[in-house]
Amino acid sequence: MQYPRYLSIPRIASSLSQPRWLALLVLSAGLALSGCSKVELEKADGTLKSWDSYRGQWVLVNYWAEWCKPCLEEIPELNQLDKAPDITVLGVNFDGIEGESLRDLGARMGIEYTMLAKDPAPVFGWNMPVALPATFIVGPGGELIETRFGPQTEDDIRTVIGN
Description:
It comes from Marinobacter litoralis. The chain is α/β, with parallel strands linked by helices. It has two domains: 5-34; 40-161, Glutaredoxin, CATH 3.40.30. Helix content is 37%, strand content 21%. The chain has helices spanning 9-15, 18-34, 69-82, 99-109, 121-124, 154-161, and strands at residues 40-42, 48-50, 58-64, 87-93, 114-116, 134-138, 144-149. The strands form two sheets. The protein has a five-stranded mixed β-sheet, with helices on one face. A two-stranded antiparallel ribbon has the order 1-2. The chain is globular, with a radius of gyration of 22 Å. 20% of the residues are buried.
């Protein structure tokens, strides 16, 4: 494709002084790289875990609430799935409970998988679930594969991920 002469890089570069051209180049590179910042998820215990550390495995981001009976039904299945070497389960409390209250509630409900301190949906551009339980299935490459509603079983999840 041929660009008009007024848009050519050599023409723009020659119209700028050397320091201005270099500053523009550095600024452009900085803006391009700013979108590549690493996502860190805060776990219920306050520690941080890099989202990139989950690459290569399936991740189930499960939204739950204490008042949700189907959520209670699926906890044993999710605990079992989380023990598999190729799957990680991350729990998100729908009601926004945090800190020690969240850890206590998770223990009372029998949750053994990692609980997140905050909802990661805004960081990833996901919509807040409209029903509970909701499970976002993320592939080994970090892409959202499917969102499922209702209690999941190990067989349900294994069917989706193909093993």
